[in-house]
Amino acid sequence: TFISAGFWSKGETMRALSANLFALLLVCALASVFYVWSALENHLERHKRDFSVPGRGSFHQGPSEDLSAKTFRALLAVPAAQRHNSGARSEGQNLTNTSAFMGTRDYHVNGDDERSAQREGPVKLGSPVDDRIFWSDWLEDLLPVRFTEGYAEVWRNKARASPVVKLEPGCGRISNQLATFSDGTKACVRYGINADQVQGETLTYYLASLLGITNLPPLVLSHIGDSAQWAAVRTRINDLQWSDRAVVSLTEWISNLTGVVTPAPLRQESSGLHPALKWLENKTTAGLLELMQWSDLIVFDYLTANFDRLVSNLFSLQWDPHVMERDTNNLLKTPYGDLVFIDNEAGLVHGFRVLNMWEKYHHSVLSSVCVFRKRTTQRVAELHRHRDSRRRLLELYRDSEPLSQELGFLSDEHAAVLQDRIDRLYKHILHCKGKYSQL
Q1: Dihedral (C-alpha) 39, 43, 45, 46: value to the nearest 10 degrees?
Q2: Which of 63, 268, 322, 369 is the most buried (most CB within 10 A)?
Q3: Pairing of strands 186-190, 219-223
Q4: C-alpha–C-alpha distance, residues 308 and 431, integer Å
Q5: pLDDT in tens, 210-237
Q6: Pairwise CA distance, residues 349 & 329, whole Å
């Protein structure tokens, strides 16, 4: 009996060990497939965009392979409650790359040539900072509205009425497409991995309008359904397996843009962008204007909890010390130095849902800035004082977008998170003002 019991105990042990070994091998195999697929998808997307930046090689002082893209984006797959208004879609990660916006229309605004001449050379008009923590008025005057509301309205009306005659890869992940309208102009169509991403990008666009930040290209929503606008590409839509119930976003495709590297004061080894920074005294006017836009970008990304721009770079430093020396995710620049904030799918909805994972990095990035645009600060102060960010954003969204009801709005919980972040940003601005009050 003793021998029999011992025999069966060893047999059970062997079976358990075999099962564990099999499970381990299965996990390793799946991890290997995921790793290879991530690398392949990243390589294919870069190849399809065929994007090159003059002088870009000088930014790549680390390995030629983008390690941060594979490792960081693999961590973005966080489970979420599935929504039904955009069809059945699986949860995933934000895989969009900044180079997706190389388009066919040259970016240009009135007065660019005159402003370009004023930007060149050293600063001659005085200090870049006024009233302790604000960019000077003369700098504000040199930076125009990039996408004016009038321009955006004209583009949105055209985008809603123009038939789509072609869909092709070129706007980030495979599920998104580059659309060509019947007049030859183009737009990026964001189907999104789930409805949260389309909703987040849309609400982020309208929050930027509420804050007076004009660096985002115009955006509209469109219902695929049986709309005549999509009739010419119905076969392509079927091949993509897009749901007829889906609401997609279309953003203007801008050409003649280049990548943007994180400025020195905002890198990990710097003391930050603050009024006492001697480094500012040696910057050209163009350099100061770019820094002004960076301060808006950091404020904006903090409010929306967008982790797929500077925050992702900060996170990636733990395995990629050269990540700050390469182009920043989802950020491009015109020939005149105007920054364009693209691919904001990670903002608000998705960003708020995974906030606990990224908050320490958001806080670190915000803490690195103590110089702000007066206009942006005034908008933040108003939203803090009246505590009505939800109402204002909802009204602007509903008044501007006919499909707002179908796509939906922030949950009460996320609206409260937005107001809380506005309040925290306001307190940070006051902290900066007190810290540099003796300047």
Answers
A1: 140
A2: 369
A3: unpaired
A4: 27
A5: 999 999 999 999 999 878 999 999 999 9
A6: 19
The SS3 call for residue 40 is: helix
Q: Rounded to whole angstroms, how far apart are CA atoms 86 and 223?
A: 9
Classify 104 as helix, strand or coil.
Answer: coil
Contact partners, residue 432, CB within 8 Å, separation at least 6: 133, 274, 370, 371, 372
Tokens of 264: 């020195």
Contact 92, 195 (CB under 8 A): no
CA geometry: angle at 305 spanning 62 and 64, to 5°? Answer: 15
Q: Please tell me the distance from the alpha carbon of residue 328 to that of residue 22, in angstroms, as a whole number.
A: 41
Query: Could you tell me the pTM of the whole model?
Result: 0.76
The helix (H) or strand (E) run that includes residue 195 is helix 195-211
* Beta bridge partners of residue 167, listed in sequence order: 179
Report d(CA 327, CA 320) in Å as an integer: 14
Indicate the helix (H) or strand (E) that contains 259: strand 258-261
| Cα 391 off chain centre by | 24
Instruction: Give 354's DSSP letter.
Output: T
Specify the 3-state DSSP secondary structure of 253.
coil
Angle at 416 between CA 410 and CA 417, to 5 degrees: 90
> What tens digit of pLDDT does each residue of 160-207 get?
999 999 999 988 888 899 999 999 999 999 997 777 899 999 999 999
Per-residue model confidence as pLDDT tens for the chain (439 residues): 333 444 344 455 556 556 556 555 554 454 443 333 333 333 333 333 333 323 332 222 233 334 334 334 434 433 333 333 333 333 323 333 333 333 333 333 444 555 555 555 555 567 888 888 999 999 999 987 889 999 999 999 999 999 999 999 988 888 899 999 999 999 999 997 777 899 999 999 999 999 999 999 999 999 998 789 999 999 999 999 999 889 999 999 998 899 999 998 898 777 888 888 787 888 899 999 999 999 999 999 999 999 999 999 989 999 999 999 999 999 999 998 999 999 999 999 999 999 999 999 999 999 999 999 999 999 999 999 999 999 999 999 999 999 999 999 999 999 999 999 999 999 999 999 999 887 6
Question: Look-up: residue for tokens 């890869």?
Answer: 169
Residue 183 to residues 131, 257, 367, Cα–Cα distance (Å): 49, 22, 46
Residue 260 CA to its chain's centroid (Å): 13
- Coil, strand, or helix at residue 138? helix
